[in-house]
Design goal:
Elements (H helix, E strand, L loop, with lengths): L9 H9 L3 H9 L2 H8 L11 H18 L5 H22 L1 H4 L12 H36 L1
Amino acid sequence: MTPDIATQNPTRSSQRYFGIPLLAMAGLAALVLPRVILHDLHLIDGGFALVNWPLALLPIAAWILVTLRARSPHPFLTVLTIGIMSGLMMAVTHQLLWESAFEGDLPDVGGSTVIPRVAAVVSGSVTGAAIGAISGLISWALASARRGAG
């Protein structure tokens, strides 16, 4: 008898699908937050300075390496999902640090800050998804090459 989907443990089923528990995927996604926070607090500049490069690229490398190490059955979808999670975390963090990020000179459209805030949420989410998709393709290619060589 097949168990009812409502009684299944979502953590176990997601781990079977992604090869990594959802909580671990959220932790990997959160690796992007130090750069976001430091940038919004103006502790690092917006360009790719010596500190910014590693803070931007090491989380993505970790997503790929952990996914490959776990031998995820769906490396593209695993890393894409991590990217989407990171985009949502970036969007929330930007909203929380909004006033600090703009140093009191808040952007507005017609006197309202709603449109720029909504645009920032959409932008952060799309950015996370795009980075996840590109990194997911890299993960998929590396996993495919490993299977072909093995």
